[in-house]
Input
Amino acid sequence: MAAERRASVTRETKETNVRVELNLDGRGEVEVATGIGMLDHLIAQIGKHGLIDITVNASGDLSTDEHHTLEDVGLALGRALDEALGDRDGIERMADATVPLDEALASVAVDLSGRGYAVLDAAWTGERMGELPVDMVSHLLWSLASEGKLTLHARVLSGVNDHHKAEALFKALGRALGAACRPRSRAADQSPSTKGTLKP
Output
């Protein structure tokens, strides 16, 4: 396992400019500025509850809508996670977490398998949380899973308030990611796969 599990990723297109810095062995220190307040809040949950240091700076064509910024932030964050994980030897690889927030309950299971895939089950009450369209939450998670090369199952089990449901979901994601990235104390020099590798 690499001594420093960090990554810095820049994604520039005609629609957005995104920079992500990530430290898997951090203390949950987060600085996020995307221009979409609820997106900043959700990413902060991943870092804080996964003990992952995350810095995100993004500018995009928000005058069009939030889609491009949110998608590209998810892609860049996933790519940074993949790069910080390196060959993925010596990690726990799989983990899950179930998190409540008042009336809401959410569950997330992850497998840092080297294959990007997402299964999402969340029903929303309204159309937006602040500047964030609720249907874009699933798109954010798909983008993260795709570039992060991880299998992600995320479910909102119950809840009424959309903010509570989304926040519980991302707290659970943070907890699950933090646990899956953790070094395996008894097998730190081994790939957590019967194939012998998690890289394609």
